[in-house]
Amino acid sequence: MADTITTTSPLKLLMSMIMTGFLVMSHSVFAKQDSKIGESRASHCYVDGLSEHLDCGFITVPEDRAKPNGKQIDIHYVVLPAIKNSAHSEAFLAIAGGPGQSAIDNAAGFSRMFSKIRQKRDILLIDQRGTGRSNVLNCEGEGFEGALSINEADFDVAKETQACLDKLDADVTQYGSLSALEDFEAVRQHLGYQKLHLYGISYGTRMAQLYMRQYPQVLSTVTIDGVVPMQQSVLAIGNAINRGFELLIQDCDENKLCGAQFPHLEEDLYKVDAELALQPAIRQVNDPLTGESTRLTMTRSKFMGAIRMALYMPNVRALLPHAISEAAKGNFQPIMGLYALTIDSTGIAMGMHASIVCGEDWQRLTQAERDAANQTYFGQEMITNFEKSCAIWNMPAVDPSFSAPISSDIPTLALSGQIDPATPPSWGELAMEKLTNAKHFIAPYATHGVANQSCGNDLIAQLVDSGSLEGLDKSCLDKDVRRNFYLNASTVEAIPSTEAAVQGASND
After folding, report:
1. pTM for this one?
2. Got the DSSP string for 414-482?
3. Calpha distance 98→361 (Å, rounded)
4. Distance between CA 151 and CA 282 in Å, rounded?
5. Do the beta carbons of residue 210 and residue 99 sit within 8 Å?
6. CA-only gyration radius of the chain, Å
7. Distance CA 487, CA 129 (A)
8. CB contact at 8 A, 494 and 261
9. Residue-level pLDDT, tens digit, the chain, 508 residues
């Protein structure tokens, strides 16, 4: 499902390379919400994509807990009530990714994905401070049309970062994960749940692990999907992205029709990359949203970024060989279509994103890790841009103990997608280091977000229902659900059609 393209700031374009990202779901908004009264309020609301009257509300907390009488912020939550609530004292808390995504904006997706869990238990969604409705730290700027024509190389990262910071009504140093964790726990206590079953996706897996460390007594089960281990800075994602590119090329080469249609895919990819590294390509293209002719400045950042984000979604990933092949011929229209799908599809609040990364990831990078990151395009871009932006954001560094592996015997299920371009299976293995009651399942055909692409959601429901890892059978994850690659802009089938049967049979 594609999101509405709103606005994209230069800062967002520059920093979007770091996003670990959540499932790409539609942006949702409150269609109706009672006015705020007092320091906490339970009310009713609708969210986009769900026709039900949901339970919603907020609690008011100090922005800085060291200054309890200082500025206050509202932490908003929504409860998707159980169909037949047989576990009144428990809830299933689903934590969004990014960092910077709104959990409430993804309510419809969570409800669909965890429909079995919702039969017996409430699903609790909390907009983490700095996201959604909880004093969002957002940076807006150029519209989509402007983003097509600009050259990101002309941006002054320091200037754009300062401009974003100046517009925010917040002490950005108070928007780290540990502060947000206190909010989550306050919401749990406010609602009266005695136990939580946790689900975290991508950056949300960091929040889930912190919950395991700080409040293990209130957790019954934990699922971490697309795992960011505590030991890992997300700024090490450059190698994971390169791995995603390599797996795409390998998958196309091993597919008879894709390999035959695009026999030089790797050469085409790096040919365009090399050309754009020298200078951008200026073209007249049809705007992917309006169809009108518009000026395109195709930069290396746009080209590689569009491919990178498309790797998150199996259905969009299937379009990449064709788009890359056309780009090598000088036709960037297919890439522009992918760019339109991904430019703002993750709904990231970039101010909150910067607070997390600058405080928790940037400052723990060793020189060896920086050197390794600089060996890849994406890694080098991230190092360069965050060097400038984090100096302005001025986040205090987390304590070194923040990065210690989680030691826990809570029943924990870790899920990884084999072709995940952000959080590879090796990251899931790293998180398992001191988990004594855990299983790590790898879905061979999934990208980022196993629960949304496979039977992973059924396995989570089984874990929540039983409270135990016993009996979980990963074999359902092995079902071949690969999508055929598009051989042109509209079809996965070759001509003559008898050839298409080869690809179809190989993927059934």
Report:
1. 0.90
2. EEEETT-SSS-HHHHHHHGGGBSSEEEEEETT--S-GGGTSTHHHHHHHHHHHSSSTT--GGGGGS--P
3. 14
4. 10
5. no
6. 22
7. 44
8. yes
9. 223 223 344 455 455 444 444 443 433 334 334 333 335 666 888 898 999 989 999 999 999 999 999 999 999 999 999 999 787 899 999 999 999 999 999 999 999 999 999 999 999 999 999 999 999 999 865 555 567 778 888 888 999 899 999 999 999 999 999 999 999 999 999 999 999 999 999 999 999 999 999 999 999 999 999 999 999 998 888 899 999 999 999 999 999 999 999 999 999 999 999 999 999 999 888 887 777 888 889 999 999 999 999 999 999 999 999 999 999 999 999 998 888 876 655 678 999 999 999 999 999 988 888 888 889 999 999 999 999 999 999 999 999 999 999 999 999 999 999 999 999 999 999 999 999 999 999 999 999 999 999 999 999 999 999 999 999 999 999 999 888 999 987 776 665 544 444 444 344 3
CA angle 58, 63, 69 (to 5 degrees): 100
- State the burial class of residue 95 (Cβ atoms within 10 Å of its Cβ: 0-12, 13-18, 19+): buried
From residue 348, how far is each of 26, 159, 241, 382 by CA, in Å? 13, 20, 19, 17
User: Rounded to the nearest 5°, which phi and psi values hold at 462?
Assistant: -65, -40
Is residue 381 within a helix (H) or strand (E), and if so which, with residue range?
Answer: helix 377-393
CA distances from 70 to 73, 171, 261 (A): 10, 11, 63
Which tokens is 120 given? 């017996």
CA distance 135 to 152: 28
Residue 314 tokens read as 């199996």
In 156-194, which positions are buried (b, 16+ CB within 10 angstroms) versus exposed (e)? ebeebbebbbeebebebbbbbbebbbbbbebbbeebebe
Burial 47-83 (b: 16+ CB within 10 A, else e): bebbeeebbbbbbebbbeeeeeeeeebbbbbbbbebe
Write the DSSP string, 57-87.
EEEEEESSTT-TTS-EEEEEEEEE--SS-S-
The rounded distance, in Å, linking the Cα atoms of 248 and 415 is: 21
Structure tokens, 494: 């070759």
**Structure tokens, 131:** 């996201």
For 236, how many CA atoms within 13 A lie in the half-sphere containing its CB?
Answer: 20
